[in-house]
């Protein structure tokens, strides 16, 4: 409130985030429709459920997604990213995304996506499967189907014991089109407990810094996330940074290395030397996440930019190339060109779900700013859709 128009972020549909320490608000991804639920998988990729339009989406930083109505903020978007689901349910009102990482339920549910189906009185369960640079969603099962027509499960979350709590709106009327019928006097909370699981009591505020660091290896991501947040809130401490650096170097598991990397970034310990060393990792998601984190503020070092340009041309991973396309949007236009040119050389990315459009979103302002370099990019680009959009943008007023 009270901020001048020049400091405001235009937002009429999308996923936003706020940094409480830096007091910074930004639009993370644009588009979508009533995305009443988002969560992250074991490798830090965000997914959200939507209403009216198809229900399942992967949210890449800087992505522009199908909308229910209206136009994207940039009129030169030309095309937007579509659903990652290869199927549709009977209705289109979904809520309360959860990717189960609680460590208590059977292994078949680890890293699976759950969302509430408001009209059909169900909790849906879907399997996330790698597809090119991103993921696709496959129908797994109706995990919960209530015979009570008033059941409206809105949110599912796993807690410190690894079991899941669901809040039930519990109302006869599921849709806003029928007004003044909502009953606000009731509502229910359920807990789904795996057989043999035991309740736990925990107070993380009493944990030492060393204990919070070790929680980055916990089987239940509830501990991992809260411990990571608390380490960031406690501020940068050399001994914490050193412990996380060691975990990043020594732990053999990619997901645990990622947790160490994210926590290290949160406590201000991801420096240039660590970034450059980690970019050499054989683990693709580790390389990808270094790119995203070092470009968060749009200020990677000169040495990092050199590596990013090399990777854009030569890295074999489409995941890494996707993160480069995403990160390029956060860079000044002159620094984008080597990355754009490298990414545009990959003919194999022409049919990828994400890469052509993410590359275009990063390239569009650069094309508008420098017609000469834009013409060179057009001539050398191996991705037909990007070529088409470059030509279209160059011809636009």
In short:
This protein is of the alpha+beta class and 397 residues long. The chain has helices spanning 209-214, 221-234, 238-250, 254-266, 272-278, 284-294, 302-314, 318-328, 333-343, 355-369, 371-380, 384-395, and strands spanning 14-19, 24-32, 38-40, 46-49, 56-59, 64-67, 94-99, 113-117, 122-131, 134-145, 153-158, 164-168, 188-192. A hairpin with a 4-residue loop joins strand 1 (14-19) and strand 2 (24-32).
CATH architecture of the largest domain: Alpha Horseshoe
- Average pLDDT, all residues: 94
Distance from first to last alpha carbon: 35 Å
What would the principal axes of the Cα set say about the shape?
Answer: globular
Biggest sheet record: 4 strands, antiparallel
Number of domains: 2
Question: What's the order of the H and E elements?
Answer: EEEEEEEEEEEEEHHHHHHHHHHHH
How many alpha or pi helices?
Answer: 12
Counting DSSP E segments of at least 2 residues, the number of strands comes to 13
How does the helix and strand content classify structurally?
A: alpha+beta
Q: How big is the Rg?
A: 22 Å
Catalogue the unreliable spans. Answer: none
Which CATH C-level class of the largest domain is it? Mainly Alpha
| Strand portion | 15-25%
